[in-house]
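Title: Request for sanity check on cysteine-S-conjugate beta-lyase prediction

Description:
We are preparing a figure and want to confirm that the structure record we downloaded matches what your pipeline produces today. Could someone re-run it with the sequence below and paste the raw structure tokens into this thread? We only need the token string, no images.
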Amino acid sequence: MDTTPRETPLNPLHRLTLEQLRRRTSMKWRTYPRDVLPLWVAEMDVPLAEPVARALTDAVALGDTGYPVGTAYAEALAGFAGKRWGWEGLEVGRTAIVPDVMMGVVEMLKLVSGPGDAVVVNSPVYTPFYQFVGNADRVVVEAPLTEEGRIDPGVLEETFSRVRAGGGRPVYLLCSPHNPTGTLHTAAELASVAELARAYGVRVVADEIHAPIVAAGARFVPYLSVPGARDGLSLMSASKAWNLAGLKAAVAVAGPEAGADLARLPEEVSHGPSHLGVIAHTAALRDGGDWLDAVLAGLDDNRRLLTRLLAEHLPGVRYAPARATYLAWLDCRALDLGDDPAGVFLERGRVALSSGPAFGTGGAGHVRLNLATSPEILTEAVRRMASAVG
Ligand SMILES: Cc1ncc(COP(=O)(O)O)c(C=O)c1O
């Protein structure tokens, strides 16, 4: 099999040089000194998708910079969900725009739980889950994934039973697809989650921000589409797949039995998203399919490239290419670099990765690498990591 990365002229991941990227002022490019190669926070090294750029430019030319209103974003999302995931159940009448996914998560927690209540998460998991849940006055309870990065039904049931016994209104904050492991949960896994949640009276809030980003041949399954998930709530956004984190907007979606909960969302929450954000996210979902496909092909190439590079330069690192997200979860325990290898790679290799331990239980000895970059930068990053160890 030919594993040489394909040269795709249209691939947005090939378009920007390191010099161009270094002119950016966002978190990825301005947190570390200039000599550090940043492959950490979930921003992509791509130019803006053309349909998104056009929608924004038109809005700016018109001075269309007021407050957002209406359901265009949810309608575009419903269309995308039908086309990409074969899911026709996204009911625009049961949606609300929210400022971003994490603020949306906090608002959903306020709707279905109270201060001091338990929020179950599958560690290792997206670091801000710990902070946002804590700041919302809820208590994080970990139900670790298996070594293979899958939801462990036994552990989940034991955890649900424990939080149920603790009283209050427990919630399960599902990350689907899962950050940092890139795990794409199957329909059967999600159905068993829904069954357990129902059995133990645990409400489910699903963070599905990475949903559009799947490997070739894989299909994302929306949590609300599985049997038993009718009282679930989901947060979706074009932010990760089209690199729009700076253009704030996301959508909260309620299942048929959670519509009344979502209807209690205070009106001011939906004043939080930026109008330009809503315009950008809507254009991405409605017209950005070809651009997304080019990025997804580039990410497939990068997963193969990373596999090759690690085999050649860092054979001690364990990496199983994921089926979703643009994140690579690297098990560096065999390198004996301690609990936080990212610190060593940064200090000795001048490459910034995300620290495993910050993702909670199961994160020690790991790093998260952001694959959404050019093959050149990815190659240089692995070379630097190897030089830090050798
Ligand atoms: C799982 C997950 N949820 C939420 C976010 C942040 O989303 P937002 O900027 O819309 O709050 C990220 C960003 O990487 C993420 O990976």
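Thanks, this matches our download. Residues 143 and 159 are 6 Å apart (CA to CA).
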